[in-house]
Amino acid sequence: MIKFNNVSKTYPNGVQALVDVNLEIEQGEFVAIIGLSGAGKSTLIRTVNKMIDITSGQLVVNDIDVSELEGKKLRKFRRKIGMVFQSFNLVNRTTVIKNVLASRVADMSLFKSILGLYSRQDKIKALEALDKVGILEKAYIRADQLSGGQQQRVALARTLAQDPEIILADEPVASLDPVMAAVVMEDFQRINEEFNITIIINIHHVDLALKYAQRIIGIQAGKIVYDGSVANIDNDTLKKIYGRELSEDELMEKKNVKLD
Ligand SMILES: Nc1ncnc2c1ncn2[C@@H]1O[C@H](COP(=O)(O)OP(=O)(O)O)[C@@H](O)[C@H]1O
Ligand SMILES: [Mg+2]
Questions:
Q1: Is 37 in the pocket of ligand 1 (CB under 6 A)?
Q2: Atom 7, ligand 1: which residue's CA is nearest?
Q3: Would 182 be classed as within a structural domain?
């Protein structure tokens, strides 16, 4: 479980990116964080694996107080938390399988990792991860020869190969066309359901959030302004989050996608 108790984050320049955040996220939830650009979405998810330190309050992940983690303990903790970004962060000039194997480096000796001496078990694991996102047949193709959507699936496979309990995804479909965005969202959904991995995804497309997530957290100027099920989202809530009203048609359309 992930627990935020009155968590705040103020950057050194004085920007208050998170203000008294209280949240509980159970293992296996699929949560979408929505909000305008600058609302604090990236800051929020990056506190979970301590890529960003909180300024006050307490953040507990699986009974571990995140603020206290350092060095070896922090590295061990991060291994259970996968991260996916908008820019896929692949090594373009190498093969898909080598990109996925890079996730295994944390468990290898420096000597073996420098020489790229991956065990048979690691290779099987990498291939299994590629299979989970439906691109096993691309294993020996160079990463830069894949489409954006396929590259994001490789990034997701790389994360899966580290056996995460939690996946944090920061705008993972923002640079994909709508068709590929849906495919990648379906991957997240399937992975969440099949492996009970907690997924927290920042997303600015409210329609995708409503279609694929179970729970929506709306954030505005660092404050949680909505936390609840997709079904209970109404126009007033979206107005609070986005500062504008959606037409009744827009709202119906967004909600109906969920019912398909
Ligand atoms: N490293 C930083 N230093 C100073 N201010 C930052 C930093 N990162 C983000 N911010 C500010 O914090 C606020 C929240 O940013 P962010 O979490 O990136 O929002 P979002 O992901 O919703 O766009 C914004 O006002 C942003 O400018
Ligand atoms: Mg962001």
A1: yes
A2: 11
A3: no
- Determine whether the shortest distance from the Cβ of 41 to ligand 1 is under 6 A: yes
Give tens-digit pLDDT for 219-247: 999 999 999 998 888 888 888 888 765 56
CATH number at residue 217: 3.40.50.300
Q: What is the 3-state secondary structure (H, E, C) of the chain?
A: CEEEEEEEEECCCCCEEEEEEEEEECCCCEEEEECCCCCCHHHHHHHHCCCCCCCEEEEEECCEEHHHCCHHHHHHHHHCEEEECCCCCCCCCCEHHHHHHHHHHHHCCHHHHHHCCCCHHHHHHHHHHHHHCCCHHHCCCEHHHCCHHHHHHHHHHHHHCCCCCEEEEECCCCCCCHHHHHHHHHHHHHHHHHHCCEEEEECCCHHHHHHHCCEEEEEECCEEEEEEEHHHCCHHHHHHHHCCCCCHHHHHHHHHHHHC
Q: Is the CB of 35 under 6 A from ligand 1?
A: yes
Domain count, the chain: 1
Per residue in 42-61, pLDDT (tens digit) is 999 999 999 999 999 999 99
